[in-house]
From TrEMBL:
<dbReference type="Pfam" id="PF13716">
    <property type="entry name" value="CRAL_TRIO_2"/>
</dbReference>
<dbReference type="InterPro" id="IPR036865">
    <property type="entry name" value="CRAL-TRIO_dom_sf"/>
</dbReference>
<protein>
    <submittedName>
        <fullName>Ganglioside-induced differentiation-associated protein 2-like</fullName>
    </submittedName>
</protein>
<feature type="domain" description="CRAL-TRIO">
    <location>
        <begin position="14"/>
        <end position="163"/>
    </location>
</feature>
<dbReference type="InterPro" id="IPR001251">
    <property type="entry name" value="CRAL-TRIO_dom"/>
</dbReference>
């Protein structure tokens, strides 16, 4: 199934159901956080136009005119399932209103992995103008995230903590020298992603 096989309304409902984008909590500077769960992004099911419309109508207005931060959770992302493509990323970024882009102060990138670091190091400056690349802050563990974000205000899917536990016992996963495919990518279908979204919010 592709985006051409489900209606625009169904695509919008899918975005809502999965809670891919959620304005949720604040960082240590008191800035609102836009949390993005990469694993829940169903790239094969969404059209670029529907995604941009959703952001323009449901997300950007709620960010207001004040500085904010993005928390992007990269845990469990698969290129074939969750990656919209380089051209789509650039189109989404270009569609962000200038005032919203200017108010973005920091991007906390949780569980980046070696491949995403290399991709951003080689393509990030080309893809993202306006200094966004310089606002990236890589966060390798959830515990390190709490140095920047108010932990009692942010909810995380259980698989994020599970991946953290895996990294403690298999640290070479951080450098791409050991695969976490069997553990993290099992059951990556949309419905199973939703059902596994049990929360563990630590105060």
């Amino acid at each position: 199934m592709s985006s051409s096989q489900i209606s625009e309304i169904e695509q919008e409902q899918l975005i809502e159901k999965l809670e891919i984008f959620k304005i949720h909590g604040r960082d240590k500077h008191g800035r609102k956080i836009l949390r993005i769960i990469g694993k829940f992004f169903p790239a094969r099911f969404l059209s670029l136009d529907v995604l941009k419309k959703y952001l323009e109508e449901k997300i950007f207005p709620r960010l207001g005119r004040k500085p904010f931060a993005v928390l992007y959770v990269h845990t469990g992302v698969q290129r074939s399932e969750n990656f919209p493509g380089i051209s789509a990323l650039r189109a989404i970024y270009d569609a962000i209103p200038v005032n919203v882009r200017d108010n973005l102060q920091e991007v906390y990138f949780l569980h980046p992995g070696l491949q995403s670091r290399l991709f951003l190091a080689t393509c990030g400056r080309f893809l993202f103008s306006g200094g966004l690349y310089g606002k990236l802050r890589y966060i390798s563990r959830v515990d390190y995230l709490w140095e920047h974000v108010r932990r009692n205000e942010i909810e995380m899917p259980e698989f994020v903590y599970d991946h953290d536990d895996d990294l403690e016992y298999r640290p070479m996963m951080d450098y791409g020298q050991e695969s976490d495919h069997a553990r993290v990518f099992a059951g990556a279908a949309v419905d199973s992603s939703v059902s596994s979204f049990s929360m563990r919010c630590i105060s």
